[in-house]
């Protein structure tokens, strides 16, 4: 298959899954948007679920790359956690990220095979593991107070998910929601001063 046509099909699929969700996106719509014959899409991806899995994994790979790059040059664990949070929120509103593939009506939890679910769970788990390691780095270097790093990572990710879904999927998000969210995280992870 021509690489240009394959890229066009994959890009069109990510755009449409993000715009319309899994249920409303059809192979016909994807082939029309890409300007590529429907048969090529069916031949290379087999079915919509496989294409959706490939699209989601692609978005997650780029997401993890961005999170790692944002946090790797931080001077301390606390700054790395904040860089992670900012990168998370920035990625979610970058139109080139195709983030909505992961957010809008995602059937990942209902994937038919255990293998497919395990693949997605593993990728999503890497996001939490990265944040947990940054929190541990902060405890080691003294920029964060001792805590249960796993629980704190889960709470911060839940906050990121909630802020993201509110901003991109609802009409009532405050214009400063992402900055307010970052300020909240920053205040929450500040080490407490001894009296």
Describe the structure in your own words.
The chain has nine helices and no strands. The chain has 195 residues and is mostly helical. The chain folds into two domains: 1-46, Orthogonal Bundle (Arc Repressor Mutant, subunit A); 58-189, Tetracycline Repressor, domain 2 (Orthogonal Bundle). The mean pLDDT is 89.
List the helices and strands and how they pair.
Elements: H1 3-24, H2 27-34, H3 38-45, H4 48-72, H5 77-93, H6 100-103, H7 114-141, H8 149-169, H9 177-189
Helix pairs in contact: 1-2, 1-4, 4-5, 4-7, 5-7, 5-8, 5-9, 7-8, 8-9
Strand content: under 5%
Number-wise, the strands total 0
By secondary-structure content and strand pairing, the structural class works out as: mainly alpha
Rounded to the nearest angstrom, the distance between the terminal CA atoms is 68 Å
CATH topology call of the largest domain: Tetracycline Repressor, domain 2
Which quaternary structure do these chains form? Answer: single chain
Share in helix? over 70%
In DSSP terms, counting alpha (H) and pi (I) runs of 4 or more, how many helices?
9
The biggest sheet, with number of strands, parallel, antiparallel or mixed sense and barrel status, is:
none
Radius of gyration: 19 Å
Mean pLDDT: 89
Look at the structure and name the CATH superfamily of the largest domain: Tetracycline Repressor, domain 2
Tally the structural domains: 2
* Element string (H = helix, E = strand): HHHHHHHHH
CATH C-level class of the largest domain is Mainly Alpha
Low-confidence stretches: none
CATH architecture of the largest domain: Orthogonal Bundle
**In one word, what is the shape?**
elongated
